[in-house]
Amino acid sequence: MNKTDSRKSRQRFVLVTLLFFHSFNTYMDRACIATAADSMMKDLSISKEMWGLILGIFAVGYALFQIPSGWIADRFGARKSLTIVVSVWSCFTALTGAAMNAGQLLVLRFLFGVGEAGAFPGATVAFYRWLPVKERGLAHGINFSGSRLGGALSLFLMPWLIAIPWIGWRGMFVINGLIGIVWATVWLLWFRDDPEQQTRQPGGTRLH
After folding, report:
1. pLDDT per residue over 57-109, tens digit each?
2. Among 108, 106, 107, 117, which residue's Cα sits nearest to residue 63?
3. Superfamily of domain 7-195
4. Which of 74, 79, 97, 166 is a good FRET partner for 68, with 20 to 30 A between their CA atoms?
């Protein structure tokens, strides 16, 4: 393997790793509300019926914006689309911690679903533009494993955060939102839609 091929291989490894954590964060944000259910229902006086609507409204927003988010990813590229959608849903995740009633939660969860609709279309476009066909199946497998691991870890980690008096369920949502903003910042700074424009060194060496 020559230097160019070795550099390309390392860049692809970084890409798959970044999108693994993207997928991980996506499902951690989705699942964290389940761990806070009892505290939120008690603090905001939410009935079980209303709680069902709050959880279900996410899927409505997610489903309605799957096709538009796919078009956006194709049209504007994975760099811009993922930066925007991750930032958007991370903001709504953090704002969930400021909700004062069921009505606000309904709106926030719907908008959260709208934002997350762009998660996997954006990742798919990045894989398509960066990876040869023979490597895409493995990359998608790694990506989807991140989502399941994120959802599982959320059920263990979030109750621990909620139990910390100065964090609670409100702080838990803020922390999750900040994690997404950090990821979006790293993605914006590192990723380029055209792998030939991806630089590895401060001097601007191109990946040819």
Report:
1. 999 999 999 999 999 999 999 999 999 999 999 999 999 999 999 999 999 99
2. 117
3. MFS general substrate transporter like domains (1.20.1250.20)
4. 97
Tokens of 161: 């955060």
- Mean per-residue pLDDT, 181-203: 82
- Rounded distance between C-alpha atoms, residue 64 and residue 117, angstroms: 8
Tens of pLDDT, residues 166-185: 999 999 999 999 999 999 99
Beta bridge partners of 206: 199
Q: pTM (2 decimals)?
A: 0.91
Where do the structural domains in the chain lie, given as residue ranges? 7-195
Q: How far is CA 110 from CA 37, 54, 99, 113, 204, in A?
A: 17, 8, 13, 5, 42
> What average pLDDT does range 110-138 have in this prediction?
95
